[in-house]
Amino acid sequence: MKLSVLLLERSGAWRSIGLAAVSTTALLPVLPLLAGIFHVPAREIYTQAADFLPLAAKSIASSSAGAIIALALGLAAGILHSFYLFRGAALFRFIFLIPVMMPPLLWASGLKNLHTMFGSHVPGISVFYLFQGETGMAFITLMITFPIVMLATMSACSVVSNGQRDAARLSGGEAGLFRLSALFAMPAAGVAAFLGACLMLSCPGPGLALGAKTAVSEILVSFSAFYNQNLAALQCVLLSGAILLIAALIMKFTGKRPAEILAVNASGTGLRFHPVMSPTALAFNTCCALMLVFLPLWGLLMPALAAPDLNLIGQTLSRTLSNTIIYAAGAAAVAVMLGTLAAFFMGKSTLHRNAGAAVMLVVFSLPSALTSLGVLAAGAQAPAWTDFLFRSQAAVCIAQGIRLFPIPALLVSRFLGSMPASWSWAAEIHGISLLRFIKKIAGPMLLRPVVTGFVVVFLLAEADVGTVLLLHPPGAQNLPLAIFTIMANAPRALIAQLGATCLLLTLLLMWVAGIIWSRENR
Asked: Any bridge partners for residue 84, and if so which?
């Protein structure tokens, strides 16, 4: 019995069941963690909540401040990129993505170098004085969130037709077009700002480098220093609860439009040159690139000009590079498998795409420590024959892949949502089976978003510290974790030279992803 190609077009309860199954798989590591909390006395829960929640609120506040500024700047940049022609637009987009793909602790190191060299001389006057503590954390959140908001805005604006743009220009000029586009793209941009803030809340490295005590660093201290897994689990659940509350408010804000965070088909954008707005777009993007990328990059790489200790750098790379690649590639493979499956169950139905987008938002917003501690709790109770799964490099790959699978899910869903229904009907009329249709037609096209999702997850997983710190087997560090562990005592030049190595690897992989993405949109 052959499967009908029309299965790709049909809706039904089986899609809801499949999407629920994938969502349950993603949230499964959390269940052992929740079970352990029930063993904590109620008085201790109250005491720990009273101590931890102010710290969590402080971390959320600093991340929110950076995300709000990124929302304003990214919304403006996304509209300018969507409607106006200006020199170097593609290059600017590439440059803005560099902070997202690099370990945040390296950017924190760059800000710390800038503060050390310039900020301490005239405190209260020099802007470099702000590159420490909570304000430094907010600045890194701004760096990471800005490009995410910009791309989400471009995705939302890509569905605006040329006729709608011309009508907005006739009624209010370029200012009217800008205002109406900002209102239209605000839900998607708000979700993107929230996701960028979540990325920073899950990362312990910047707080250590900038001297800021954060909620995620306190969780790691509870687990690594006090060996109190129940306390770490409780703190992680409290932080997750606060984040999910904000996520619920974000979903309420988006109303019936959460599927706008899905990347839509941006064909025929209708870019045009404007004598005022095009130079404005160039100047605005230049200022953002200088402040949000090149300034921190200067602070990171300037100490690297010292004579390198090639022997020590070579030892660090030989010890960590293979683990870095294994963790990132394994996480990308897990994320692609789960993401493709989730995208298939989301299909083209508005109901299932909205539900899928909401699930992706919840999964991605959960702190990485929550999934990692859940895997640790499950591994502690698992029999010895499961060591290959819970007490090996596979545990890191699974935990990272589960958290990052929304990225390939949204990319694949973009392809499936834009695939014409006439293809399926033509294949059905000619008696082509579903498997043959996927192999000959959908498969080759599906390969592009899958490979793009693989590369993006690879880059994000390669920059991860928190998950690897909790789950890596003894002696199996990745490169960012090795930098994290020596950052407090190693010379600044060594940190900068290792950071330069990370930058070169990141740029190479981003270049490959850019080639794939450009070919997909031809």
From this structure: 272
